[in-house]
Amino acid sequence: MKKLLVALLKVSISAAILVWLGLEAHRNAVFSDLVWQPKNWGLLASATGVCFLAVLITFVRWYWLVRALDLPFRLRDAIRVGFLGYLFNLAPLGIVGGDLLKAIVLARRHPERRPEAVATVVVDRVIGLYVLFLVAAAAVLLTGLWQSPIEKVRLVCRLTWILAAVGTVAVVLPLFPGVTGGTVSGLLGRIPYAGGVLQRLLDAVRMYRRRFGVLVLSALMTVPVHCLFALGVYLIAAGLYDPVLPLEVHLLVVPLSAATAVLPINVGPLELVLDQLYVAIPLPEGGSMVGGQGLVVALGYRLITVLIAGVGMIYYFGSRREVAEAMHSAEPGEAEAGVAGG
Predict the structure, then answer these.
(1) For 120-151, how does the pLDDT look when each residue is reduced to its tens digit (9 = 90+)?
(2) Which residues lie below 8 Å from residue 333, measured CB to CB, with a gap of 6+?
(3) Domain definitions of the chain by residue range
(4) Burial profile 70-93: b = 16 or more Cβ within 10 angstroms, e = fewer
(5) CA distance 276 to 252
């Protein structure tokens, strides 16, 4: 009953956000204008290819993290399981999440090394989230938006730098042996709600402490991932509207919007943040984008993710037994908590 109520709450929040954004778009005639205005289908197709490439790089990154712990694993298997995980991340609420599915599939192949299997997914997600804020912080410097005359924009820039700084401390500090072991580890593990996640993160860091080079390589691989996703969203916007915010500004607004993935709500927060940032940041030629256009662009991005997940559906039909066994192996507590966010 509790799980059902939580699921209904998540759906209600997502629906409320989308309805509000939809009303704003209707008030500004965004949907009706979209029907009649010309579209650049070449840019929209390019956006799909760019996002697909970004997703593939994340699978290769996970593969290197797996191999760094000496777990036998082929690249083609990492791509197959990666697409399955991507598909399950878009699945309805209540189904095993994509990260948990990847960890379970890997652990079933190496049951004696289950902690290592979980660690690969935890570190993969943490690196993705951390570099996301680094890209956004660099974009603030690149665009000069931190000097914007608009207080709301300056506030966003300062918050971005703070999150990047906090993330740097959170990532670097656990690399020191005294932090990930003994009393400190025990205290962190007892923190309500977040203790379990922090404990799994510390366990993962212990395994990778002597493989610092792999962590650096994974972080470097993640930079083009977020840049490609920003390019993909920019191409969607440019394919639908004119004018749009420049590409360098998308290097800020897209990572900040994507950071909402840490929230336990699949749909809504990304659309809300992207739409608000589109309106808040002025266009180079003056004025700003219209409220509701960010929602349409975000929905275009969601459609592309569904198309990419179609590859995962193909793999699913060839791996139904393996997926069914993995879902059966997932404990209720794990399915609710997931592995890590980022």
Answers:
(1) 998 899 899 999 999 999 999 999 999 888 99
(2) none
(3) 39-337
(4) ebebeeeebbbbbbbbbbbbbeeb
(5) 13
User: Distance from CA of residue 244 to its chain's centroid?
Assistant: 23
Q: What is the pTM of this model?
A: 0.86
Block residue for tokens 């603030």: 140
- Quick check: 16 pLDDT over 50? yes
The pLDDT score that the predictor gives to residue 93 is 44
State how far the Cα of 63 lies from the Cα of 79, in Å rounded to an integer. Answer: 8
What is the arithmetic mean of pLDDT over 189-195? 61
User: Looking at the predicted structure, is the pLDDT value of residue 91 above 90?
Assistant: no
Can you tell me the distance from the alpha carbon of 123 to that of 340, in angstroms, rounded to the nearest whole number? 8
Instruction: Decide which of 90 and 123 is more confident.
Output: 123
pLDDT-based confidence at residue 184 (cuts at 50, 70, 90): low
**HSE (side-chain half, CA atoms, 13 Å) at 71:** 30
Q: Please state, in angstroms and rounded to a whole number, the distance separating the CA atoms of residues 337 and 334.
A: 5
User: Are the beta carbons of 280 and 288 closer than 8 angstroms?
Assistant: yes
Question: Rounded distance, CA 66 to CA 249, Å?
Answer: 34
Count CB neighbours of 155 within 10 A: 12
Helix intervals (H) in the chain: 2-27, 30-36, 41-68, 75-89, 98-109, 114-143, 151-172, 177-180, 182-189, 195-208, 212-240, 247-258, 269-280, 293-318, 320-329, 332-337
For residue 259, give the DSSP letter. G
What is the pLDDT averaged over residues 31-47?
Answer: 87
Phi-psi region of 78 (alpha: psi -120 to 50; beta: other; left: phi over 0): alpha
d(CA 78, CA 195): 29
